[in-house]
Amino acid sequence: MDWGMKNRMAQIIKPDGKCFFLPIDHGYFLGPTSKLEKPGETIKPIVSYADALFVTRGVLRNAIDPMKSKPVILRVSGGSSVIGEDLANEEIITSVEEALRLNVSAVGMSIFVGSKYEKQSLTNLGKLVNECERYGIPVMAVTAVGKELAKRDSRYLSLCSRIAAELGARVVKTYWCEDFDKVTQGCPVPIVIAGGPKCKTELEAFNFVHDGMQKGAIGVNLGRNVWQHKHPLAMMRGLHAVIHKKATPKEANELFKEIKNKK
Predict the structure, then answer these.
(1) Residue 204 domain boundaries
(2) Residue of 44, 147, 173, 250 marked catalytic
């Protein structure tokens, strides 16, 4: 790994080897989803506890202060919407030249293993890695499932994560599942946990993040479970404690309640 790649990886993964990515890229297929209508304002109270932002170029340019930004992972895939025929029908929509111009620390794209567009998305990943390696830019592969949530089991996610690593991704973002250690043990690059649907309780979120960290993940990429919460700062602080301070779910929940109740 050359100096530029090491330097960019060090920007998004902290010295303790852990990371908390805050994704606000949902609008690229969902539009102005709830609580993310004005992304810059939404993240202002919580961004200091994030290690990096996962964001599209449009939101980065128009909503993120370049003088105060966290490291950026740039979403570079897209092309389908939530009302379209198939979310898996994505292409690379942002160039590596643009990523360099925006001075990002990494880029990210989705792969849809097992879908009609599997070959397309995996080929896109391979081509993106080829170009990004030339300039020392890490690629994060996102093991997306579109609307097929039933695919989130260890056998499927192990397959997706390993393929992403084999094609050259430096980081893999995937979902937590039962037997999550089977996913991490089969993937030779760092894994971060995706948030998925909004959790019913705070403790549910702290539990799955803690379990995933104990079973080999280096961190999380959580958005809706934070910024759609009634108490986003308290949620952010609780998750940060699990990731960077080795807090138990119970300790994180107590911290959440303490911060929530402060006036």
Answers:
(1) 3-228
(2) 173
pLDDT tens digits for range 179-206: 999 999 999 999 999 987 678 899 999 9
- Report in angstroms the alpha-carbon separations of 32 from 39, 44, 91: 9, 17, 21
Encode burial over 248-258: b for 16+ CB neighbours within 10 A, e otherwise: ebebbbebbee
CA proximity to 236, closest of 42, 7, 57:
42
Q: What is the pTM of this model?
A: 0.95
Number of domains comprising the chain: 1
Q: Can you list the alpha helix ranges (DSSP code H) found in 31-113? A: 39-43, 57-63, 96-101
Residue 157 near residue 184, CB atoms below 8 Å: no
Q: Is the pLDDT of residue 176 over 60?
A: yes
Q: What is the CATH number of the domain that holds 38?
A: 3.20.20.70
CA distance 98 to 143: 23
Q: What is the mean pLDDT of residues 20-25?
A: 97
Asked about 173 being catalytic, the answer comes back as yes
